[in-house]
Write a structure and sequence with these properties.
6 helices, alpha+beta
Length: about 270
């Protein structure tokens, strides 16, 4: 990255003279100084994971947790009113307890696991070749959920057949809500080795793309013998739309989904909230 290149360029200096970190105001060895980026210790505290070779050890596969309240760069704010109930505390607690790893340390899903890769793809057709180039990485996941695909199969030369990925069943495609096919669209892939294609159903009563202002939802169910069925909800809301309408739609969606509460339910998407 640009930042990493800048860091590498700052290494070196006069090894016979100690320097002072402008952040912590402590004397540091020139090899530990990163000029305007402070010393290595301060820089790593503010921007965890940005130091070169930070993860060179095979025993260290953790990455920066953006939800950790111990981090100087945390994305989680403090409650607005002390003592008042904070509806985000539970969600923040879950996010903070997740295990964050580098992509190259992701292992292939095991029999007792179900791994999902979710991303805002911002045009599937534009990024399809990149995905195919890294298909061995994506095949480590049991499901791929992409949102903002900007893709309507009717506008493609082969009607959507060109969207098939090696190792995955033919994708479940939902057109963008906008007639222009821009700023929306959902697609879900299920790995062939996880289940038969006949075990995957689209829950039409829980799929919607009729109103771009209210967001887009695509829901599928994977039928499993002797195990709980898995329901995957892939969703997207454009940042230019009314968030209140989306929240109302989401609440209605959750009410309908309540009857499936004994199944494994997974939400994947981008609400831009």
């Amino acid at each position: 990255s640009y930042l990493s290149s800048g860091i590498n360029a700052e290494y070196g200096g006069n090894i016979n003279k100690m320097e002072t970190c402008w952040i912590c105001e402590q004397s540091v060895h020139p090899r530990c100084s990163m000029s305007l980026l402070g010393c290595k210790s301060c820089h790593n505290e503010i921007f965890p994971g940005n130091l070169p070779n930070a993860y060179s050890s095979r025993f260290n596969n953790a990455v920066f947790n953006p939800y950790s309240t111990d981090s100087a760069a945390t994305y989680v704010g403090e409650p607005e009113t002390e003592g008042a109930p904070n509806n985000w505390e539970v969600a923040s607690g879950v996010l903070n307890s997740c295990r964050y790893t580098l992509s190259h340390n992701v292992q292939t899903s095991k029999k007792h696991q179900f791994q999902i890769y979710s991303a805002n793809i911002r045009s599937l057709t534009r990024n399809l070749e990149k995905i195919r180039d890294e298909i061995l990485f994506f095949q480590k996941f049991d499901a791929l959920c992409f949102n903002e695909t900007n893709c309507n199969p009717a506008n493609l030369p082969f009607g959507g057949d060109e969207l098939v990925l090696e190792g995955f069943h033919p994708p479940m495609i939902q057109n963008p809500a906008r007639k222009s096919s821009k700023g929306g669209g959902l697609i879900t892939y299920i790995r062939e080795t996880f289940c038969e294609s006949t075990s995957v159903d689209i829950m039409k009563n829980l799929c919607t793309n009729s109103d771009p202002e209210a967001g887009e939802f695509q829901t599928i169910e994977i039928q499993r013998e002797q195990e709980k069925n898995i329901i995957i909800c892939n969703y997207y809301r454009s940042p230019s739309t009314n968030s209140s309408l989306f929240m109302n739609k989401l609440e209605d969606f959750l009410v309908k989904l309540n009857r499936h509460r004994n199944k494994i339910i997974l939400f994947m998407g981008d609400s831009n909230i």
